Fold each of these.
Amino acid sequence: MAAPRIAIVGGGIAGASLAYMLAVERGVAPLLLEREAHCGSHATGRSAALYMPSYGPPTVRAATRASGAFYREPPAGFAAQPLLAPRGALHLALRDDPHAEPSLRALRARLQAAGSPARELDAAAVLALCPVLRPQQVLGGLLEAEALDMDVDAILQGFLRGARRAGAELHTDSAVLEARRADGRWRLRTAHASFDADIVVDAAGAWADALGALAGATPIGLQPKRRSAFLFDPPSDVAGWRDWPTLIDLAERFYVKPDAGCLLGSPANADPAEPHDVQPEEIDIASGIWAIEQATTLHIRRPRATWAGLRSFVADGEPVVGFDPNLPGWFWLAGQGGYGIQSAPGLARAAAALLLDGTLGAAWAAAGLRAEAIAPGRG
Ligand SMILES: Cc1cc2nc3c(=O)[nH]c(=O)nc-3n(C[C@H](O)[C@H](O)[C@H](O)COP(=O)(O)OP(=O)(O)OC[C@H]3O[C@@H](n4cnc5c(N)ncnc54)[C@H](O)[C@@H]3O)c2cc1C
């Protein structure tokens, strides 16, 4: 049987990783259409680049673990440098958080259940790891050594380059404006061209429901949420800051991590938004700075850069991967929330299996990934 012609809409990590898995691992080179001049301009290019296998709901965690092997040992020629680097995540129990102790207990139980090794640290050990934390604030913490930095640009470019080499056709500046089905095929129209396909993959990130609406799909109920971040200067009088783990407030008021010769801070906000080229609100940055300065002796005079991106979720927080139950030839790859980079190779392999084999197979079930848990229209 001839391979189906697959058109992927969206050139973020979701679309790029699927194009790679289809073209390189399954020998079915797809078409990839991206609205912007460069792939990765939206959520993918704005992430905090942390790989944390304990983070997210069960299917996300399974997909993240399944992605670890690919990121640790990518195929030869995928990237010139390692994709992962040691970082660690230090979950902080702070005194001004009334729920700090129960939150710490709950996290410890969750990490144990998920098989994620984490070391409990008392206040002295936390302060030894990160001496800018205010001693009067620190109750203790949990250190997750499995959390790693990702090189997101190398990952994205590796997927795109590999997919292209294996025959995938990539078109940037190609916003899909119309999606019509006739005679059992899809016709996608952009401002400059039309493309025919047997199957359309909706990997449009925060715009997934908007793209689906063009085709007459029932919405999956995607809610984009703004998360803001900023870069600031490290302290000039404290050594060793480059080796700090990511500091994560258990009450989710902030996180901080070393990044690109600076420190990256975020208020860990999740403000509902319409899909658009989102910018940070002043209040996001101010509240992130305030929370970091409450917990540490860091002084953030002026951030070097600020940005925001949209993390998009459906109601149960799990991704949506599979054929639409009512619209023939329409396949969703959306709702990756705050975990889309860390889980990309695993989810893309799962998507390729569902697209080409119609099933995930036994190996995925053993890995904790069931098609029903990620199916569009699940109950
Ligand atoms: C501040 C922040 C921190 C984060 N930190 C992490 C982290 O540490 N680890 C992690 O794993 N994840 C993290 N994430 C989440 C991660 O970035 C997302 O889950 C992931 O990037 C989603 O990828 P995507 O390809 O679905 O979406 P996107 O990257 O947004 O890509 C969708 C693409 O579709 C295109 N598109 C939309 N409509 C059309 C159309 N009609 N025609 C053509 N193209 C279209 C858009 O232009 C866009 O490029 C973070 C996100 C944010 C915002």
Note: The pocket of flavin-adenine dinucleotide is lined by residues 9-15, 33-36, 41-44, 46-50, 175-176, 203-207, 211, 227, 229, 309, 311, 336-342 (CB under 6 Å).
Amino acid sequence: MILQDLTGDERVLVEAVSRFVEERVRPNVSDLERQGVYPDALVAEMKALGLFGMAVPEPFGGLGLSVPALTAMMEVLSRGWTTLAAYVNSHSTVAYAIASHGTDDQKARYLPGLASGEHRGSLCLTEPSGGSDLQAIRGAVVAQAGGYALTASKTYVTNGAKATLFLTLARLPQAEPGTRPRFGLFLVERSRSGISQTTTFHKTGFGLVDTVQIEMDAVPLTMADLLGGVEGKGFAQLMEVLEIGRIAIAASAVGLAANALSEAKRYAAERRAFGVPINQHQAIQLKLANMATRLVTARLIIREAARIKQSGGRCDMISAMAKMHASDEALAVAHEAVVVHGGAGYVQDYTVERLHREALLYTIGEGTNDINRLVISRRMQGDEEMDYLGLLP
Ligand SMILES: Cc1cc2nc3c(=O)[nH]c(=O)nc-3n(C[C@H](O)[C@H](O)[C@H](O)COP(=O)(O)OP(=O)(O)OC[C@H]3O[C@@H](n4cnc5c(N)ncnc54)[C@H](O)[C@@H]3O)c2cc1C
């Protein structure tokens, strides 16, 4: 099902990554998680497969995947090991932002390096004072000779320890007193002066994905570092870019759900209770049926969001729905997978214990699910959306 909507070339690519996941990743995940060592060798193989260039157009050395193919890749990676999907998720969002909104110079400067993985991109939106209300961020640039100085604290930065390029949301100098705040997305290279990494967060899951706080203290920037090179477009650019981020994280959540259901189905065939394999008990059969249905509905809504995004249509409502629905369903599937495992579901020898912990993050990242519900509810007022939903006036 995940190969539907893909071109022939894209199918070949996704199948190659699927083989990599089956042969090189899945057999080693438990050991890698237990050892707790960053998987440099696998990341090198991901680079060789072009996975850091999924969202980079071909002329800049990337795979130039369509949105449906990007979602298929995210699902396949995550089905094998969520951690690998996390390595390329926000990185791909950064690449997509530059490809879609960057100047010619910014594309030439960053896209080839992002495609090869030489440049690692991270998203710097959230601040210690809050992540849901991004219009209230404090991080700001002030004008200085030759450009700007950026001062901001950015927290929960995924892959922030490895990143070489931070796509950073910041306030712009006020055009006139009393006017609405304006924002810019800045391409901030780690090598710039004034950047330091402070806290490393110890999380419930994704132990091998670094999540850090980045301090930016009067970092010197120029107009050439402002995405698109025109002031005041940052928030609109971000909202458009987050649509891709939400579709991609939703696909990653579905990959997790597919893994959890596979594990539950296998365990239910092996484990015996009351003289028979537990999958012969109707209560287990009903659970597996519900999990399979959750998986398919989540995949379908992502497919719809990817189709609309690919066609260039307005996509904020459906991408928020896809993110919210897929992550809620993935959490439910992971929970049911633990239940099917009985006591074994609560010990670390079984994959579902980890998946259950990890599933929570998908309901938080790229906007909490309640924030995504607010996006949906706001858009439901529009004529186009009323029509799409088949509502009566
Ligand atoms: C592991 C991890 C990785 C992350 N990676 C990144 C990253 O790479 N880059 C990045 O920028 N951020 C990242 N984040 C941050 C993430 O996007 C934020 O945590 C998330 O957007 C919520 O922001 P917050 O934590 O400040 O919660 P808050 O904004 O403080 O919200 C707290 C609670 O209040 C609710 N709430 C807030 N406002 C409303 C409202 N108006 N109506 C109803 N409910 C509301 C929220 O839904 C939530 O339940 C990451 C977070 C984690 C945990």
Note: The longest strand covers residues 147-158.
